[in-house]
Amino acid sequence: MNAGYSFPILKPSEIVACMADLQIPLSLEDLEKPSPQRMIAVFEAFTDVLMGVSRDQFAQPDFRVLEILEHPELHQEDVTLMGFYRQLFKLVSEVGISDFSIRDLIKPEPGHMRKILSGIINFAKFREERLAVFENCTQQSEEIVRQKALLQEKNQEIAERVNTMRLQRAEEEPSYQRMREKNLALTAELRELKRIQTAMTSDIENLKKHKNDSIEKMNNTQFLLANCKQDCVRLRSRIVPNPEKLQQALVDMNNSIAGEKQSLSAREKQYRELLGKMEAMGTVQQDLAMCTKLMEECEFEMKKASTAANKLGLEQENRERKKQELHEVNVKEQQMKRQLANISEKLNRHAKQQESRKQSTDAKMRELSAEYETSVKERDLNQAKIEVNQNRVSELDEKIAAIKKKIEVEANSFQECYTKLKTRGELYCAELAKIMSS
Predict the structure, then answer these.
(1) Which of 70, 184, 386, 437 has its CA 20 to 30 A from that of 170?
(2) 3-state SS string over the chain?
């Protein structure tokens, strides 16, 4: 509690009025001459109203303390009083009274009692003013509990999803490793085939060029052969007389034709080999296209795996963040639970107080009703008596009036007699004076 905390010291009449508002009986005489029994009863009422600690909780002291004492039956009341003093000390310390001691229970002083009661009443008024804040805190606590339940459900769903993804990843890990190894092997094979394709493309270009040259040469040779045949047909008519030269020329031409045929056969063989190589290259190109497609699929799968890994990382980060938030919510929940428990305890005490007040009020109402009925009966009896007395008073008034008239008449007659006697006396005295003077 703050040492500088202060509260107004109330007047005795104000203290009695506030105590009446709290339904705690206290009189001005109790404040002027406080007794231990009366002050203990007042403080017990305060602890019951403000702390929810009733006298019954101190009726059974701690047996562990009693076991330590040599004669516990002699100290039972003292132990109970000390337990009550500890609870009361907490209350008065919270309201800003630092000089409270056991002496205030055993031997209370009027001035100090006035100060203590002023502080406790000030706290009770402050407590009543803060009931709206308490209700707001209760609503916030309920809202936080509801949000916590929702967050726990979301966290449970996320945890289940993460566990499912982990299990799925663990199940897919062997196939993923196999695909990765296969992908690496296919990548190496694709690179090798790419290198071979590059080399074979160069060879194919060279072979195509050589093929075109060979076709061109073959066409030229066929053209020359046709021209030679035409020349042979034309020269047959011009056979020279030297058959040996002609035969030699024919042999040379046949040799030339045979060489051309061999060269043509070699060219055709080379052409067929080139066709086979081109077909093989087509097959290789198809294989390369399939490998490229497989590589693209592997790259797509790797991207999917990378995306899934990133998502898993994000989910793990979210899960850690949710764990932190859940921890904070749990801490807040514990705090709010403690506050809610205190508030619930205070509400229960307040309800009990209201119930006890209601019961006491009902009892007082019944007593007042009985007193009212008794008062009505007494009033009717008194009214009847009053009417009888009024009749008697009327009669007495009449008698008094008659007596007054009679007394007035007698007084008048007495006055006349007195006047006559006085006159006679004066005459007698005058005559007596004359006689004495003569």
Answers:
(1) 184
(2) CCCCCCCCCCCHHHHHHHHHHCCCCCCHHHHHCCCHHHHHHHHHHHHHHHCCCCCHHHHCCCHHHHHHCCCHHHHHHHHHHHHHHHHHHHHHHHCCCCCCCCHHHHCCCHHHHHHHHHHHHHHHHHHHHCHHHHHHHHHHHHHHHHHHHHHHHHHHHHHHHHHHHHHHHHHHHHHHHHHHHHHHHHHHHHHHHHHHHHHHHHHHHHHHHHHHHHHHHHHHHHHHHHHHHHHHHHHHCCCCCCHHHHHHHHHHHHHHHHHHHHHHHHHHHHHHHHHHHHHHHHHHHHHHHHHHHHHHHHHHHHHHHHHHHHHHHHHHHHHHHHHHHHHHHHHHHHHHHHHHHHHHHHHHHHHHHHHHHHHHHHHHHHHHHHHHHHHHHHHHHHHHHHHHHHHHHHHHHHHHHHHHHHHHHHHHHHHHHHHHHHHHHHHHHHHHHHHHHC
